[in-house]
C-alpha cells in the first residue's frame, strides 16, 4: 500500500445525547491509531447524521465540530426520516469526499475495533466488507429467536441478505456511486447493498450492550422493518396467495363431491361447526391475501409519488460548508 486512503464514518443518530460524547471519543482514538499505522489518510472524518432528534443530539454534534472541525462533521436532517434514510443521507453526502465509508450506529454496540479488519480487507481488494455478529449472547431469547428467524425467512423469500448482518459495513467509493443509482423510496439497505455486487467479504465481531440510552427499535418498529424488507425484495408472498387459492379451490371441489355423495346416500344433515369453521377459514385467508396485496399496492403508491427520501437542513464540515 502506497498512499493511505480517506475513510469517512457515517453515524446515524436519533436522540443519542447520552452516548454521543463517548462515541466521539472512542472513534477519535481509533482514527488516531489507524492514521499512525498508515491505514487511513489524515483527511479522514467522522460524520454524525442527526435524524430529527428531539433532544440535544444536534447541539452536541455542533459542539464536537466546533471543538475539532478537521475531524468531526455533521449532517442535520430537516425531519425524522428513519434510520435507513439517515444512513443513506450520510453516505450520499460524503460519497464524493471519501475513498471508503463505514456505517455504524451511535450506541457503541458495534465493535469499533472491527474497523481495523474492515480497512485491511478493503486494501485486499474487497469493495464491500460486512460486519457480522459472531453470536447473539447479549440478546434476549425473544430478540434472538425473532432476529434469526427473520434472516432465515428472508432467505426463503429469495432476498440476498447476509446472515446476522445489520448496517455495520464498509463500502468503497465505487459501490457508493452505484448505490446512488437505486432510487426506491422504500429502503432496505441490507438487501440493496448485496445486489450491487463487486468483491465482498465478512468480518466477525461480538456485539455489546448499549453504552447508554434506550433502544430505538421496539418490537413495533422491528416488525415494520421486517415487513418492509420482505415486501421490498420478494414477490413470493404474492405467489403464495395464488398457491393458497389453488389449494382452496381443489379442497372446495373435493368438499362439493363429498357433499354430493352424502346427499345421495341420504345423510344430508351437515354440522354447524364445520360450516362455521369453513366460513371463518376462507374469510381469514381472503383478508390475509388482501392485506398482503395491500402492502404491495401501498409500496407502489409511495414509489410513484417519488417524494424525497430525506431533506438535509445543514451540513457542517471543516470548511463550514452547507448543503
List the helices and strands and how they pair.
Elements: E1 7-13, H1 20-36, E2 45-50, H2 57-67, E3 72-77, H3 83-94, E4 100-103, H4 114-123, E5 128-133, H5 141-156, E6 165-172, H6 173-179, H7 189-196, E7 200-205, H8 219-233, H9 236-264, H10 272-305, E8 312-316
Parallel strand pairs: 1-2, 1-4, 2-3, 5-7
Antiparallel strand pairs: 3-8, 4-6, 5-6
Notes on the structure:
This protein is of the alpha/beta class and 323 residues long. The chain has 2 domains: 236 residues, Spore Coat Polysaccharide Biosynthesis Protein SpsA, Chain A; 70 residues. The chain is built from 10 helices and 8 strands. Strands 7-5-6-4-1-2-3-8 form an 8-stranded mixed beta sheet, sandwiched between helices. Helix 1 links the parallel strand 1 and strand 2. The chain is elongated and about 90 Å long.
Provide key terms for this protein.
single chain, 323 residues, alpha/beta, Spore Coat Polysaccharide Biosynthesis Protein SpsA, Chain A, 2 domains, eight-stranded mixed beta sheet, 49% helix
Summarize it.
By secondary structure, the protein is α/β, with parallel strands linked by helices. The protein has helices at residues 20-36, 57-67, 83-94, 114-123, 141-156, 173-179, 189-196, 219-233, 236-264, 272-305; strands at 7-13, 45-50, 72-77, 100-103, 128-133, 165-172, 200-205, 312-316.
Tell me the CATH superfamily of the largest domain: Spore Coat Polysaccharide Biosynthesis Protein SpsA, Chain A
Give the N-terminus to C-terminus distance in angstroms.
34 Å
**Uncertain residue ranges:** none
Structural class: alpha/beta
Secondary structure: number of strands = 8
- CATH topology call of the largest domain: Spore Coat Polysaccharide Biosynthesis Protein SpsA, Chain A
Please identify the top-level CATH class of the largest domain. Alpha Beta
Q: Which radius of gyration do the C-alpha atoms yield? A: 25 Å
Strand content: 5-15%
* Number of H/I helices: 10
| Mass-distribution shape | elongated
The CATH architecture of the largest domain would be Alpha-Beta Complex
Strand order of the largest sheet: 7-5-6-4-1-2-3-8
Average of per-residue pLDDT values: 80
Secondary-structure element sequence? Answer: EHEHEHEHEHEHHEHHHE
For the record, the count of structural domains works out to: 2
Largest sheet: 8 strands, mixed
Roughly how much helix do the residues carry, as a percent range? 40-55%
Amino acid at each position: 500500500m502506497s498512499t493511505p486512503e480517506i475513510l469517512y464514518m457515517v453515524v446515524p443518530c436519533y436522540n443519542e445525547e447520552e452516548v454521543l460524547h463517548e462515541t466521539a471519543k472512542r472513534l477519535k482514538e481509533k482514527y488516531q491509531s489507524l492514521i499512525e499505522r498508515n491505514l487511513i489518510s489524515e483527511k479522514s472524518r467522522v460524520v454524525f447524521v442527526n435524524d430529527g432528534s428531539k433532544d440535544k443530539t444536534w447541539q452536541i454534534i455542533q459542539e464536537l465540530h466546533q471543538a475539532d472541525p478537521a475531524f468531526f462533521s455533521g449532517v442535520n436532517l430537516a425531519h425524522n426520516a428513519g434510520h435507513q434514510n439517515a444512513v443513506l443521507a450520510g453516505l450520499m453526502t460524503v460519497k464524493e469526499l471519501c475513498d471508503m465509508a463505514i456505517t455504524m450506529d451511535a450506541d457503541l454496540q458495534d465493535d469499533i475495533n472491527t474497523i481495523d479488519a474492515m480497512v485491511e480487507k478493503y486494501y485486499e481488494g474487497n469493495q464491500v466488507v460486512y460486519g457480522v455478529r459472531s453470536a447473539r449472547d447479549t440478546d434476549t431469547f425473544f430478540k434472538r429467536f425473532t432476529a434469526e428467524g427473520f434472516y432465515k425467512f428472508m432467505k426463503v423469500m429469495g432476498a440476498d441478505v447476509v446472515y446476522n448482518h445489520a448496517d455495520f459495513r464498509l463500502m468503497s467509493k465505487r459501490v457508493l456511486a452505484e448505490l446512488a443509482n437505486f432510487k426506491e423510496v422504500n429502503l432496505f439497505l441490507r438487501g440493496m447493498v448485496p445486489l450491487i455486487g463487486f468483491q465482498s467479504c465478512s468480518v466477525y465481531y461480538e456485539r455489546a450492550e448499549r453504552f447508554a440510552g434506550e433502544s430505538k427499535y421496539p418490537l413495533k418498529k422491528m416488525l415494520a422493518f421486517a415487513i418492509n424488507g420482505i415486501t421490498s425484495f420478494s414477490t413470493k408472498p404474492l405467489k403464495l396467495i395464488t398457491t393458497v387459492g389453488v389449494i382452496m379451490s381443489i379442497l372446495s371441489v373435493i368438499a362439493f363431491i363429498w357433499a354430493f355423495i352424502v346427499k345421495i346416500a341420504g345423510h344430508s344433515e351437515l354440522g354447524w361447526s364445520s360450516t362455521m369453521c369453513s366460513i371463518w377459514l376462507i374469510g381469514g385467508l381472503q383478508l390475509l391475501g388482501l392485506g398482503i396485496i395491500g402492502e404491495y399496492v401501498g409500496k407502489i403508491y409511495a414509489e410513484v409519488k417519488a417524494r424525497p427520501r430525506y431533506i438535509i437542513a445543514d451540513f457542517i464540515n471543516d470548511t463550514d460548508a452547507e448543503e
